[in-house]
Amino acid sequence: MAAETTSNHKRVRKSPLERKREILDAAVRLISERGYNGISVQDVADAVGVTKQGVLRYIGSKDNMLSMVYLENYNEGGNISEFKSSGLPGSTVDDLRLPAYLRYLVHYNSQRRMLVQLFSVLQVETFNPDHPLHEEFADRQDSIWEYYSGFNWRIPPSFSSFDEVRPTVRKALEVMDGIQLRWLREPAIDLNEEWAEFEPLLFSSPLWDGYR
C-alpha cells in the first residue's frame, strides 16, 4: 500500500519545451497585470511552482525572458505569411490587399486578449530609455513598414508606388493601438466591430473601392 501511495504521488516530469512554455505563459500574465518593472523572476517561479534557479535555467535572465515573451509570443502570430495561407479574400499572391490583412490582424488579436494587454503595457513602459525593449518599440513603426514593404500589395492605381501608402499605414496602426486600448477597458466593446467602423475612414471610397 505504501509503495502504491508513493507511486500515485510521483511528481510529473515535464519536457523542457513544456516547462519553458509554462514559464513564458506565466510571464505574459504577470507582466500584463503588473508591468515588467512590477515583477521579478521569483514571481514567475512562484507562479509556475519551481525555483528561481529553475526559471533562469530556461530563460537566462529577466531581460531575456521579456524578449522571449515579446518576440516569440506577440510578434510571431498574425503575420502576413499566415494571412496568405488563410484562404481569405485578399490573401492570394495576385490579389494581396492591405486592408484585408489588417482586418485579419484585428481578428487575430481579438482572440489573444492577454498578449494584447501585455503589448499595451509594454508600449507605455518602454518610454523609459533604460527599458530593455526601448529601442524595439521606438523603431516599431519603421520596422513594420519595412516588413510590409517586402510584399506585393494590390493598391489603387492612383498611388505611383507603395511608398505613397505609408501615411495611411501609420494612421491605421495608430488607430489599431487606440482601439485595442479601448477594447481592454470596461465596458467591453467588440474589437472587430469597432475596427469595421474605422476601416472605411482609413481606406476611403471611392479610392479604395475594390482594393479592400
TrEMBL record:
Keywords: DNA-binding, Transcription, Transcription regulation. Gene3D superfamilies: Tetracycline Repressor, domain 2. GO terms for molecular function: DNA-binding transcription factor activity; transcription cis-regulatory region binding. Residues 17-77 form the HTH tetR-type domain. Residues 40-59 bind DNA. InterPro entries: Homeodomain-like_sf, HTH-type_TetR-like_transc_reg, HTH_TetR. It comes from the Bacteria. It holds the Pfam family TetR_N. The keyword DNA-binding applies. This is AcrR family transcriptional regulator. It comes from Bifidobacterium saguini DSM 23967.
